[in-house]
Design brief:
Layout (H helix, E strand, L loop, with lengths): L1 H11 L6 H24 L3 H14 L3 H9 L6
Helix pairs in contact: 1-2, 2-3, 2-4, 3-4
Length: 77
């Protein structure tokens, strides 16, 4: 994932270890997870969406991830 790649760069190159880079990594991770959950729900794979949400929250606590299941459109929409 982008987040791990960016954190790896930050460890190897201290000049890239700044708040802006870390915030971008966090936002990218959250946005990617929310999008994946939305796609899984759209293709009627809600059990998998719940598992993705659980694993993502275990890795990175975030309100957007917490609300992703509620805000994703249902397959009927």
């Amino acid at each position: 994932m982008k987040m791990e790649l960016m954190l790896s760069f930050a460890r190897k190159d201290p000049s890239s270890n700044n708040r802006m880079m870390l915030d971008y990594a966090d936002k990218s991770f959250v946005d990617d997870v929310a999008q994946l959950i939305e796609v899984l729900i759209a293709i009627d794979m809600s059990n998998e969406a719940v598992e993705v949400q659980k694993r993502a929250l275990d890795y990175f606590e975030n309100d957007k991830i917490k609300l992703a299941l509620e805000s994703a459109p249902s397959p009927d929409e």
